[in-house]
From TrEMBL:
Residues 3-173 form the BD-FAE-like domain. It comes from Streptomyces endocoffeicus. Keywords: Hydrolase. This is Alpha/beta hydrolase. GO terms for molecular function: hydrolase activity. SUPFAM superfamilies: alpha/beta-Hydrolases. Pfam families: BD-FAE. It comes from the Bacteria.
Length: 234
């Protein structure tokens, strides 16, 4: 099962339409693909609300019939990579401790992996401050993947060397810190910019799909399934 989580610096104008081409490509290659939407800054989202939506969207898979949830890989781009990584460790926190569906691996594409560093660098014109609720709001462990190291599942960071929106240093520092603490983390850095990694025709996406296939036997076709918490692309 692949859960696609779109980016857009957590802002309302960026929607699940961004994730649809990737989810469709995965479905065409035999994966059950769940294109997850969530509330964002400007339409009721931000900080805990957004995290609640992501957790609930993944848990909704448990009520769908005939889904193999022995492998659940979250694949997130940019801010979606932040959310994909959060989802893998959410059950350690009381707020999401009763979550029904566990994430078994993360693929973070050009992801915001260190919110403190991202705030310091003013990535996305202050996107982190917008997301957490202001420049004086502390970034706590529930919010920040970097502070959640080590995770109990493998994390793969896919990043373009020429990314000026979210520099590759975000992935590099996460992987170095995670490996230093004994976690399973790897960086795949390729030529390209912030959006190369989400181009279904790119080498970066081909590598991502190969990586996904290596994480589990591809599930049986389940393209008839759908539900309100996301899009199941056929």
């Amino acid at each position: 099962m692949a859960v696609v989580i779109h980016g857009g610096f957590w802002r309302a104008k960026y929607t699940a339409l961004l994730g649809r081409p990737l989810a469709r490509d995965l479905a065409e290659h035999g994966w059950a693909a769940w294109n997850l939407e969530y509330r964002r800054v400007g339409n009721g989202g931000g900080h805990l609300t957004t995290l609640d939506d992501v957790s609930a969207g993944i848990d909704h898979l448990a009520v769908l019939e005939n889904l193999d949830l022995s492998t659940v890989v979250t694949i997130g781009h940019s801010a979606g990579g932040h959310l994909a990584t959060f989802a893998a460790g959410r059950q350690r926190y009381q707020r999401w401790s009763t979550s029904k569906v566990s994430v078994t691996a993360v693929i973070a594409q050009a992801a915001v992996m260190d919110l403190v560093a991202a705030r310091r660098a003013a990535l996305g014109n202050g996107a982190v401050d917008n997301y957490v609720g202001g420049p004086d709001v502390p970034i706590n462990v529930e919010t920040d993947p970097y502070q959640q190291i080590p995770l109990p599942v493998p994390v793969w960071c896919i990043h373009g060397w020429g990314d000026h929106e979210v520099p590759v240093a975000q992935s590099l520092s996460y992987v170095q810190q995670a490996r230093g603490q004994g976690a399973r983390a790897n960086l795949v850095a390729l030529d390209g910019d912030h959006f190369t990694v989400v181009d279904p025709d790119s080498v970066a996406w081909a590598v991502t799909r190969q990586l996904l296939d290596s994480l589990s036997t591809v599930p049986n076709d389940q393209s008839h399934l759908a539900g309100p918490a996301g899009e199941h692309i056929r």
